[in-house]
Amino acid sequence: MGFPAFFAQAPVLRLRDDLSMLLGATPDGIIEYRYADAVRLAGHSCPTVAGAWLCARAGLRALYGEAVPERGGVSVHLPDDEDTGVTGVVGQVLTLVTGAAGAGGFKGLGGRHARNGLLHYGDGGSASLRLRRLDTGAAIEVVLDTAPVPADAEQRALLGAVVQGTADPDQRHRFGEAWQARVRRLLLDHADDPAVVRVRAVA
Question: What's domain 11-144+195-202's architecture?
């Protein structure tokens, strides 16, 4: 069985990766990333993965407008340490989309296309996710608030049984459906909702 159908309806992120073109992986450097790619990376679909996806989308749109964003052309700054809460998961999704990597990332070819050192954790310069263009220096902050898209009553009721290990197969199935219903609402109904994803320019 494949992914839920709504994965294919989620916003698609289209970027240009000149390294990909240089090395012959794509003829024009254009790569489309879909929500299912983030799910494959994380191994699951949840509000954190969906939220990181929407933050990447909103941040790149704010930085590049109608132009195709440059993969590898943005640095990513997260305020918390990598092992704090879900910060590491958010960082992984942002690496997938932007190419920004930590010390272990690609170190470049002929002095260009380096991806290492572009992903920063524990950056106290901001209380929220920050993206900065390497070419212009333009920077934005993105704040995610999933509170306007709460879990439904059934998900909350089933959560205790799932966590305690007492849920039967039917309850686990219903919990999964309710869980993904919230993710669906985030990705399809609130992708452009400023109450959920807020972007502001920074100096």
Answer: 2-Layer Sandwich (3.30)
